[in-house]
Amino acid sequence: MSVSPTVAVCGPASWNHLIVLDHLPEPVPHMQFARRSWQTVGGTSAGKALHLADLGIGVRLCSPLGTDGDGERVRRALIAAGVTVETISSDRTERHVNLMAESGRVSLYVSTPSTPPEDALEAAAAVMAAADLTVIDLSELGVLLLERGKVRQSPLWVDLHDYDGSSAFHEPFLRAAQAVFMNDDRTDDPWELMRSCLERGPRLAVCTRGAAGAIALEENGTQHEVDAVPAKVVDTNGAGDAFMAGFLAATLHGAPVARALRAAAAQARIAIESEHLHPVLGR
Question: Is the pLDDT of residue 31 over 80?
């Protein structure tokens, strides 16, 4: 019997209040009526973990969570979805209020985690060292873990999100990774952005382009492209996390880059067609 690969994911999980408006608020006193609102699990690491679990990958999520009600709701929802949650103690659980309209999104950070204690960092590093592959997301926790050599005992993948090619905060994440993912929000030349990333150590760079699909560049210069899978758009939040999880799972099962891109695009559609990071949260 084959053993399922394991992935450790380290980074944010949060409790979010999402509010849909006719238009984003202008900076003047006024009143609006919400078109609809709901509360659900958020956080880029939680999104990846949910989609990896859906794809049959054994996933352990290391994330700062408080003992408050929000933390308990996050834990309960993730565990019910098949994610093993390795709680990193925090004075409070991260919480956002997301204001959404057709013109875009404004995310308000209502609370953020406290600095992780040393024993929690050591425990998380041990979880990552034991995994077949590790994902470290952009966060204070991620920075502290990268300082520990133990976390690099397994291959490391990093999501750079809207990286612009020069951000100092992203640099240690980029240089430690074997594969990096990003979107094209802050570049006019995604191929050049990916080339610059590969010059600093990674072997693979992948860039999502929304409705235009995604592209990938291997260290040997091989280029790949994939179209976006047609979807009924409900909420694009978490689509990039679903995409990365789909690519990662396919790779662990032996898929080459071109096939992994197609699997990633299909997984992104699942997030796009749900008002949650993954539809399992709404069941």
Answer: yes
